[in-house]
C-alpha cells in the first residue's frame, strides 16, 4: 500500500476533517456493539453455557446447505481469523456440536458440519438469543427506524458470500463479480 500526502499529514490532520457529529456516530456504534454483545453473551452463557461466538458458528452452519461450510467460508461469515475459528471449532468438535469432514470436491478443503447435537443445542439457545435481541435492540426502535438502521448498517457490512459448502466464488464488495 502506497503512502499518500494525506497519510504524511499525521493523525491530527485527519482528525480535523472528522467532525463532532461523525465521531459521535462512530463512538456510539462502538459502544452500542460492545454493550449489546456483552449482554447477549452473558444471557447465552448463563442459560445455555454457550458463548455468543459458538452460537454464531452454529447459526451459520444451520443456515448453510447440508449444514456444512468450508472452514475458510465459516471464518469469513463469523468474522474470525482462520486460527481463531480453528480453536473455536476444535472446542465445538470436543462438545460434539460440530464435526470436521474432508470436502469431497476439493480434498485440500475441510468442512465444518453441524451435528444433530449441535442443531439441538442451537434450537435450545435460539429462543434466549432472539428474546435478547428483541429486548436489547429491536424494542428501542420503531419499524421505520429499524428499516433505516438496517439500510445504514448494511452499507458498512461486507457480507460473506458463500456459494456452497465446497464451491469458491470470489466476490467484490456489494456481491458483484470480483475485478
TrEMBL record:
Domain of life of the source: Bacteria
GO molecular function: DNA-binding transcription factor activity
Stored InterPro entries: HTH_MarR-typ, MarR/SlyA-like, WH-like_DNA-bd_sf, WH_DNA-bd_sf
Pfam entry (one): MarR_2
A GO biological process held by the record: response to stress
Record-given protein name: MarR family transcriptional regulator
Stored SUPFAM superfamilies: Winged helix' DNA-binding domain (SSF46785)
Native source species: Frankia nepalensis
Gene3D superfamilies: Winged helix-like DNA-binding domain superfamily/Winged helix DNA-binding domain (1.10.10.10)
Domain HTH marR-type residue range list: 26-158
Spans traversing the lipid bilayer: none
